[in-house]
Design goal:
Length: 351
């Protein structure tokens, strides 16, 4: 072979070798990048069939794991909230559940964004749908699942200069509306009043299908009120209480307390004993709790908490109602917790 031919073969071999090395390097770099992405991505909870925990004591909630199942209704067993979560195909912004019925507020996006309240069966099959007049905020069912409330943020109230405006409606499950609570008679400190700037939100029901508690704000002051569906009245209990939640035994009300009255952006939790009128102020740490608490049991509250600096990412925390209790992470990537302790053979949250 001539010297020129040998030189050509060497050059060709080197060129092929460089291509192979470059290809291997690119493959290795791609594999390393994929591995880094995998390690950096938050772990995903294992999932099981949507009806896996039907009929069991369970926590029903809005799944907020980033991914395809974000915003879908999910559940975990109360005895083991770290178990694989059962994720449905039903999307809700806020959800509340009893053993027989589920209340769902949701945003329906399209050319024109719409908002709706859905009455769902225990298996999440839709029974009824009603339009909402604004962005979903709160929903609650009565203990026996016969009443449902919905609160939304709305625009267009002439008196609103700053802040927000709400519309809160109570419905009979399987029936019609009992009306907007702003139309109920309002009694504050023993006097019948009719302020134009009233807002009502955060309903929680007693077990008689008549009595409820809520927040009414007027003149810049939020009041805890006791409502009567038959008399169509709202009567103030005390000022400085927002988003109440009645305990399972009906003796106490948990609610948000503004740590800086007037600011309206920094809340902790308190528990009011209805008989004595005494409030136990709880410590949620530096975080601000902007949620309507849920009672896990007679001595423990659950609430949703947004992660600092992570828009859309939320967790559910627990907190004992005794002084000195410390908040604990209960369930990651969750929102709008609802405790269901009964089965489909019972009529309420608990059996």
């Amino acid at each position: 072979m001539s010297r020129a031919g040998l030189r050509s073969r060497v050059v060709a071999f080197v060129a092929v070798s460089l291509v192979c090395v470059a290809g291997a390097g690119a493959y290795a770099a791609q594999a390393l990048a994929e591995r880094r992405d995998e390690l950096a991505a938050p772990p995903r909870s294992p999932q099981v069939a949507a009806d896996r925990y039907a009929g069991e004591p369970r926590l029903v909630f809005r799944n907020t794991e980033i991914g395809a199942s974000f915003g879908l209704v999910a559940s975990v067993p109360l005895e083991d909230p770290r178990a694989p979560r059962a994720v449905s195909d039903v999307a809700c912004d806020r959800v509340d559940a009893t053993a027989r019925v589920v209340s769902c507020l949701r945003t329906e996006r399209g050319v024109v964004t719409k908002y709706a309240w859905l009455e769902l069966a225990a298996d999440l099959a839709q029974r009824r749908r009603a339009p909402l007049t604004g962005t979903p905020s709160r929903t609650r069912l009565s203990p026996d699942g016969r009443l449902a409330s919905s609160t939304v943020f709305v625009a267009g109230h002439a008196y609103m200069q700053v802040g927000f405006s709400t519309a809160t409606v109570v419905r009979r499950v399987g029936g019609g509306s009992l009306g907007n609570l702003e139309d109920f008679g309002l009694v504050v400190d023993g006097r019948r009043v009719a302020p134009r700037d009233r807002n009502v939100w955060g309903v929680t029901f007693a077990d008689d299908d008549r009595t409820f508690y809520a927040t009414v704000a007027t003149g810049g002051v939020p009041y805890l009120v006791r409502g009567d569906l038959e008399e169509r009245t709202l009567t103030s209990v005390q000022p400085g209480a927002e988003c109440p939640s009645l305990s399972p035994d009906g003796s106490r009300v948990a609610y948000k307390i503004d740590r800086d009255p007037g600011a309206g952006t920094d809340w902790t939790l308190g528990v009011l004993d209805l008989d004595s009128g005494r409030t136990t102020r709880l410590d949620v740490g530096p975080s601000s709790v902007d949620d309507q608490a849920e009672w896990l049991d007679d001595e423990t509250l659950l609430y949703g908490l947004a992660r600092t600096g992570a828009p859309g990412e939320t967790d559910v925390w627990s907190l004992g109602t005794r002084p000195g209790s410390e908040p604990r992470l209960y369930l990651r990537d969750a929102w709008s917790p609802s405790v269901v302790t009964g089965t489909t053979g019972t009529t309420g949250r608990s059996s």
